[in-house]
Specification:
By secondary structure, the protein is mainly α. The longest helix is centred in the first third of the chain and has 42 residues.
């Protein structure tokens, strides 16, 4: 006989905890995106008010590049966190078959990684520059909205995609090729 797991007393609380954790982690990724947006708003005003001509003239470019690099760091940290938490949550669910286990972890990782990787790009593509300010309104002089360049948001989007996608490949390559070499070095010379 196969053991029976009671749905209402054992399985449902674990599923609710797992689903709630995934929703919380998606919300966490959106909060980090808002944090990067606030960083970019503050830094563009700092760069524009700078005494250095290079910084004030290229404030939008510097802000876009540093914001994309900050997004990349957050994305890579959250990716590692999501991978480990998705495995823990799926193990807690106690699936009967390997297929249902694989389906559950795939759905979790897809949701978490989709929001994590594509939220910054979707923000630049669809939201940035769409929130207009009233011309002549001096009340928001310190923090102006994130506006696009006269060419539109495409250059910002391209630079953000370049930094995120190339940075992700470099990070993944380092993990794949560098981590075994570092572990081998530590085991050989330090242990």
């Amino acid at each position: 006989d196969e053991p029976y797991v009671a749905f209402w007393t054992q399985k449902l609380p674990i599923l609710v905890c797992s689903f709630g954790s995934v929703i919380f982690l998606v919300f966490l990724a959106v909060c980090f995106l808002v944090g990067v947006i606030i960083y970019k708003l503050i830094m563009i005003s700092v760069f524009r008010s700078s005494e250095q001509q290079v910084l004030s003239a290229n404030a939008r470019m510097f802000t876009s590049a540093t914001g994309a690099m900050l997004s990349l760091v957050v994305i890579m940290i959250l990716k590692i966190l999501y991978q480990r938490l998705a495995e823990i949550l799926t193990d807690m669910e106690n699936h009967r078959t390997q297929t249902s286990y694989d389906n559950s972890i795939t759905i979790k990782l897809f949701l978490l990684n989709f929001v994590n990787f594509y939220a910054p790009i979707m923000y630049v593509a669809f939201i940035q520059g769409k929130i207009y300010e009233v011309p002549g309104d001096q009340s928001k002089k310190l923090l102006k909205g994130e506006e696009c360049s006269p060419a539109g948001c495409i250059p910002t989007l391209c630079s953000q995609m370049l930094i995120i996608f190339v940075g992700k490949q470099i990070f993944t390559s380092f993990i794949e090729y560098g981590k075994p070499r570092v572990i081998r070095f530590v085991q050989r010379y330090l242990l």
